[in-house]
Design brief:
The protein has helices spanning about 20-30, 40-45, 55-65, 105-110, 125-140, 150-155; strands spanning about 35-40, 70-75, 95-100, 115-120, 145, 165-170, 195-205, 205-215. The chain is α/β, with parallel strands linked by helices. The protein has a single domain (about 20-215), classed as Dihydrofolate Reductase, subunit A (3-Layer(aba) Sandwich). It has a five-stranded parallel sheet. The structure holds NADP nicotinamide-adenine-dinucleotide phosphate.
């Protein structure tokens, strides 16, 4: 995030405001996880593949007994996911989509060719259920959530976050409508979230913070 707490601009345009070191930091965190989780809007806006480069990070995973790359998990309530996104054109690791039966039939048909669909009844995906499915069906023990803000906020509300990796980048965007870490909602979180700072590293003009989130 920027020094004033923004994670993107007000029009949610894909912005690149962090260093190469920060991108490496993201990859290192991704490489530790059994699964990487992303909200539909971030997937759409940033068109990411959620993979890992060949080499050290993949080799270390294999040496730890993990698959070469983490499972890729997409979350969408409505399910109107575009199958032509880059994620679906790459075979780095299996893709799971957690969505609801609201997903249009045509999307279901197109996406089933590229991913495993987990569709639940109701309007919204139950995040606790989703994590249980990941654990039971896919033996996932650690999940790296890469946002965006709406998904992160939902995870915080349900007390599902153990650790926050936060990079403060040397910019200020300003503006009321640009989302912060927890989005644009005017509402308070159900309870303030307390964290313990476990690591702080300064590289160039950026500060890399690691917080342990204290559970309620
Ligand atoms: N600076 C950074 O480090 C960083 C990191 C990540 C993202 N971003 C930026 O953040 C922006 C997107 O963030 P966002 O807050 O708009 O969206 P988001 O959290 O990426 O995605 C929200 C969407 O995820 C789906 N979803 C399913 N269950 C959910 C739940 N329980 N809670 C929340 N969402 C759920 C819904 O998809 P459906 O609409 O399909 O139902 C919802 O609309 C992008 O501009 C991206 O570039 C920045």
């Amino acid at each position: 995030m920027t020094a004033d707490g923004k994670i993107t601009t007000r029009d949610y345009s894909p912005v690149d405001f962090t260093s190469r070191e920060d991108k490496l930091h993201l990859l290192r965190q991704r490489a530790l996880a059994d699964a990487v989780l992303i909200g539909h809007s971030t997937l759409q806006k940033d068109n990411v593949r959620l993979g890992l480069p060949r080499g050290e990070l993949r080799d270390e995973r294999v040496a730890r007994g993990q698959t070469p790359s983490p499972l890729r998990v997409v979350l969408s309530n409505e399910g109107r996911i575009d199958p032509s996104l880059k994620l679906f054109q790459s075979e780095i690791a299996p893709i799971l989509i957690f969505s609801t039966t609201r997903m249009p039939r045509s999307s279901q048909k197109a996406l089933r060719e590229k991913a495993t669909l987990h569709l639940s009844e109701g309007d919204k995906v139950d995040l606790v259920w989703m994590l249980q499915q990941l654990r039971r069906e896919y033996k996932v023990r650690s999940v790296a959530c890469e946002g965006g803000a709406a998904l992160f906020r939902s995870m915080l509300e349900l007390d599902l976050v153990d650790q926050l990796n936060l990079t403060i980048a040397p910019y200020l965007f300003g503006g009321r409508d640009a989302p912060t870490l927890t989005g644009v909602s005017k509402d308070f979180l159900p309870a303030s979230v307390r964290c313990t700072l476990t690591d702080m590293r300064v590289v160039g003009d950026e500060c890399f913070l690691t917080y342990r989130v204290r559970h309620r």
